[in-house]
Amino acid sequence: MACGRAAPEPPNLVLISIDTLRADRVSVARPEGAPPAAPTTPRLDAWARAHASVFRQAIAQAPWTLPSHASLLTGLDPLRHATNRSFHALPAELPTLAETLRARGYFTAALTGGGWLDPAYGLARGFERYESWGQAGQGDAEWERHAEQAVAWLDALPRPFLLFVHTYDVHDFPRATRLPPNTPDDERARLYDAAVAHMDAHLGPLLARLASEPLRSRTAVVITSDHGEALGEPAETGARDYGHGSLRDPVLRVPLLVSLPADAAYLPPRVRALARHVDTQVRLIDVAPTLLELAGARPDVGPLAGDAALDGASLVPLLRAQPLTAVRPAMSYFARPGFGLALRDGLRFKYRLDDAALAPPATGGAGAAPRETLFDLAADPAETRDLASTSAAAAALRARARRLLERHAAGFALTLRAGAGDEVIVLRGALLQHGAPTSPDASVLRRVADDAGEIAVPTRQARALLLQPAGDLRLELQVAGVTTTLEAQDAGTRGVTLAFDGRAWRLSGANAARCRARVCVEAAWRGVGAPAARATAVADPGLRERLRALGYVQ
Ligand SMILES: [Zn+2]
Q: pLDDT digit string (tens) for 333-352?
């Protein structure tokens, strides 16, 4: 019913990420029907039973720390935030959860284990206080002390606050890569479980403080992980998986526990946590929209987001035990050779598209042919039997994957270089097509360079560039590390079309010929793992003349 209640008080928000924590190692988060296992998280279990809703089908959007946290802290899929490769940073134009909350008057603070959460990678943006305990590439060896520090911050931070806590305590168990290769799997699992128990023991005081007043009444808490860890599960290749470099379920399934403020004055009207367990598929990208809704804040996705809002959606309806009108598919992405994306329909099937066009090698090589696989998770939870060629479910998921790719591959950038790597000009375009363009000529862009050296792209429909150099053309194309040389003779008379056919860039409309000018073009898909190129002014007058002769600048 409508009521005259005053606007709710903004709640404190606490987000805890326990790096590398498998869903099945948190007893209360274990899926229905999973075989029993020794309890490893007694303190987390007790806190969850008393205070939290437990999501038992939560999926990470990436299998490693940097892109998964980028999704957690923005609500965006990896193809959208484009922070998918080592040492890439979150694009500056994408707002973070912390920025949005800070603009709403929240004090934003973070205590992290560093490494891929080092401020260099952009995830610290929006935090007024951000402490990283580790160096890049190192873990958090002192979780006990850091958990105590988090408790001290809970008591001292101005309210309302967002506190983000991250630890590598579980991640730094003796990893498969550091153990002798003949280490038995049960020994690996024992070491992993011991690390989980160690993490849980020192999480205890932090949970106790969150459960005590006044924090319990005023604070929403989310506890999750960025990815799991494979401990020797059989892979479809017949080999066994170790670590977290795959798109298989021991890596993608994560725990997700959500506790709302006990005092209704700190909640939006009619929001109550009724669900104890939620078995609907949810995703890490849903966490940021959930916290924003609880804070009464609207997400601001910035100028490059097009017509879409955040990729994630608030979990508040599920906390209220309201069924969703439609299952939310969960996409996960891994930008490494041999991988690509995984798409779960949330009901039964998991589709994978591993394609060098999606995850090209870092250097050289054309990559392997695209490979599709489909697993029936109900009948084959270990993902060992590929049904892509036999199941009718493959077509629907394939189509959905292509739609997601089209939605997310929001554009590309071309950086022209001449010789020694001088950046001279940036062309920005849009590339929506994954697969062969049906009609490249219909969506050709004509070159319109402005003074800043950028080519304006009028629509999001473009799949090709029309180049009209004043003579012959030779392009060395580097697309995410793969180099292709393209040559065209007397290209200026008709122009040549530079088009991406889903696997490679090609020139059409001209003949291969001698080269009169050399320009190296580095192309990058915005949104598929490459950092945004920056427009820079032409520095070298001679080079500018050559580019003018080629027709690139006016
Ligand atoms: Zn991680």
A: 998 877 888 999 988 999 99
SS3 305: helix
Centroid of ligand 1 to alpha carbon of 65 (angstroms): 3
Distance 259 CA to ligand 1 centre (A): 23
**Interatomic CA distance for residues 66 and 113, integer angstroms:** 12
Cα 166 to ligand 1 centre (Å): 10
State the pLDDT confidence band at 5, using cuts at 50, 70 and 90.
low
DSSP element (H, E) containing 194? helix 185-210
Q: What is the DSSP string of 41-109?
A: -HHHHHHHHHH-EEEEEEE-SSSSHHHHHHHHHH---HHHH---STT----TTSPPHHHHHHHTT-EEE
Contact 489, 472 (CB under 8 A): yes
Residue with tokens 């023991």: 201
Q: What is the 3-state secondary structure (H, E, C) of 350-366?
A: EEEEECCCCCCCCCCCC
CA of 297 to the centre of ligand 1 (A): 28
- Report how far ligand 1's centroid is from the alpha carbon of 124 (Å): 16
Q: Is the pTM value of this prediction over 0.85?
A: no
- Report the separation in Å between the CA atom of 372 and the middle of ligand 1, taken as the mean of its atom positions: 26
CA 457 / ligand 1 centre spacing (Å): 37
Residue 129 CB-density burial (10 A; 0-12 exposed, 13-18 middle, 19+ buried): middle
Question: What SS3 class is residue 543?
Answer: helix
* Max avg pLDDT among 102-111, 116-125, 165-174: 102-111
Sheet holding 505-508, edge to edge: 444-446, 464-467, 496-500, 505-508
Residue 291, helix vs strand vs coil: helix
Report how far ligand 1's centroid is from the alpha carbon of 551 (Å): 47
Centre of ligand 1 from the C-alpha of residue 19, in Å: 5
